[in-house]
């Protein structure tokens, strides 16, 4: 399975309102070429931080599903992020690791992921669902299981997809960084509860349009974070 | 001198509603206060650049985040400030402690202490030192909030030992 095929497979299963954070380099470029969307936040620089950005997003919007498309080079640069995510365990976070055991964007230099079992680390830090796949078919099954249902499955989920080398010529992300950000924020400020992927977390009185950017005082995330915070304190 | 409580309450009043960072003894009081606060989260990060990533995610979700760190950790974060925060114009409030101020500190803090402000200015992060006098400190916070709200830029407030107690 090549990376391009893996990203195609994942995006095929998206309902369209999931928020997607893509790691810098080829992952962002391929996502951009396969399915450009206002829900995508393409990282251009800041290597290593895709999972951290996805984590901050998922904590703050517990009723939205957040998908991180990460690479092995990226994750190895910020392994501490796994521990932080595992500790807070946001159930709406789905973390894909596209693992080709190399830094493909800089010319294929090897990483150490050929021997390091990153899925075991994810399990050890507290990801609730952990899968490892190496074929398109396996990935399809796992993705539809996790993304397809209105998920009773408990997250955070970690899916390690082993990727073969082999590159497709894809253009760079042609949007300006500030456009990527503004489009992402504007899109979020317009979404409605009917689009939510986990409506069971909302009480009935929160029906109607939910304007994220303007509703600081009535933010379900606040309640959720309070709970998380208490858990942290008890620890 | 500003009291820890007054400073934290002022942050909350200005709308800052998401806190993350890596500790420093100078920021001990503030971080402990925020960690006890049940209304708002303080997320302990493993590294300063990770904290900036988490805060960026929170900002994209409509939050108004603050990142707390030591100036040595700001050294870890220069690349992230340049290629994430400044590139996308993510308006984070950075509260950075100033170890090595005036060259009086443990040896590992001297060089970064000398370079903290210069580094921030060089990459284009507006930075100001928090004054000792309470009224002036309030003004500094207001100026920082103005930059964040009106210009959508990250802003740093540099905190010396003893200024917030």
Q: What does this protein look like?
A:
The complex is a heterodimer of chains A (235) and B (165). Chain A has 9 helices and 8 strands. Chain A has 2 domains: 3-162, Thiamin diphosphate (ThDP)-binding fold, Pyr/PP domains (Rossmann fold); 177-234, no CATH class. Chain A has helices at residues 3-13, 26-34, 50-60, 72-77, 80-88, 118-125, 136-148, 177-189, 220-234, and strands spanning 19-22, 40-42, 66-71, 93-99, 102-103, 109-110, 129-133, 157-162. With 235 residues, chain A is an alpha/beta fold. Chain A is 40% helix and 15% strand. Residues 192-235 of chain A have low confidence and may be disordered. In chain A, the strands form 2 sheets. Chain A has a 6-stranded parallel sheet, with helices on both faces. Chain B has helices at residues 4-13, 28-36, 48-60, 71-88, 107-123, 134-151; strands spanning 18-21, 42-44, 65-70, 93-97, 127-129, 155-159. A 6-stranded parallel sheet of chain B has the order 2-1-3-4-6-5, sandwiched between helices. In chain B, helix 1 crosses helix 2, helix 3 (48-60) packs parallel to helix 4 (71-88) and helix 4 runs parallel beside helix 5. Chain B is globular. Classes of the chains: A alpha/beta (235), B alpha/beta (165). The interface between A and B is large, with 47 and 41 residues.
Radius of gyration of chain B: 14 Å
Written as H for each helix and E for each strand, in order along the chain, the element string of chain B is HEHEHEHEHEHE
CA-CA gap between termini of chain B: 7 Å
Quaternary organisation: heterodimer
The proportion of residues forming helix of chain A, as a percent range, comes to 40-55%
How many domains of chain A?
Answer: 2
Number of domains of chain B: 1
Low-confidence stretches of chain A: 192-235
* Helix-strand pattern of chain A: HEHEHEHHEEEHEHEHH
In DSSP terms, counting alpha (H) and pi (I) runs of 4 or more, how many helices of chain B?
6
């Amino acid at each position: 399975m090549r990376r391009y095929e893996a990203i195609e497979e994942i995006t095929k299963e998206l309902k369209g309102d999931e928020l997607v954070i893509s790691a810098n380099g080829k992952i962002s470029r391929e996502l951009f070429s396969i399915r450009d969307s206002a829900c995508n936040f393409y990282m251009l620089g800041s290597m290593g931080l895709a999972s951290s950005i996805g984590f901050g997003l998922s904590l703050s919007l517990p009723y939205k599903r957040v998908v991180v498309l990460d690479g092995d080079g990226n994750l190895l640069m910020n392994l501490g992020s796994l521990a932080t995510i595992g500790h807070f365990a946001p159930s709406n976070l789905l973390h894909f690791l596209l693992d080709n055991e190399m830094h493909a964007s800089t010319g294929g230099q090897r990483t150490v992921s050929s021997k390091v079992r990153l899925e075991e680390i994810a399990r050890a830090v507290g990801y609730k669902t952990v899968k490892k796949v190496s074929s398109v078919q396996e990935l399809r099954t796992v993705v539809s299981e996790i993304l397809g249902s209105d998920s009773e499955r408990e997250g955070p989920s970690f899916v390690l997809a082993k990727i073969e080398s082999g590159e497709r010529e894809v253009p760079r992300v042609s949007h300006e960084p500030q456009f990527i950000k503004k489009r992402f924020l504007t899109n979020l400020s317009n979404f409605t509860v009917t689009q939510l992927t986990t409506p069971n977390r909302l009480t009935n009185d929160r029906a109607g349009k939910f304007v994220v950017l303007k509703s600081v005082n009535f933010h379900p995330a606040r309640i959720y974070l309070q709970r998380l915070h208490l858990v942290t304190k008890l620890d | 001198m500003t009291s820890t409580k007054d400073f934290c309450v002022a942050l909350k009043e200005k709308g800052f509603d998401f806190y993350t960072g890596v500790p420093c003894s100078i920021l001990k009081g503030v971080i402990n206060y925020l960690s006890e606060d049940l209304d708002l989260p303080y997320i302990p990060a493993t590294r300063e650049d990770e904290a900036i990533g988490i805060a960026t995610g929170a900002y994209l979700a409509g939050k108004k985040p603050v990142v707390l760190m030591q100036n040595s950790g700001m050294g870890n974060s220069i690349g992230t400030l340049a290629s994430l925060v400044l590139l996308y114009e993510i308006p984070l409030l950075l509260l950075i402690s100033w170890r090595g101020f005036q060259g009086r500190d443990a040896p590992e803090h001297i060089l970064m202490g000398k370079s903290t402000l210069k580094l921030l200015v060089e990459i284009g992060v507006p930075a100001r030192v928090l004054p000792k006098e309470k009224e002036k400190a309030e003004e500094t916070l207001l100026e920082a909030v103005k930059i964040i709200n009106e210009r959508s830029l990250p802003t740093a407030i540099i905190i010396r030992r003893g200024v917030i107690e």
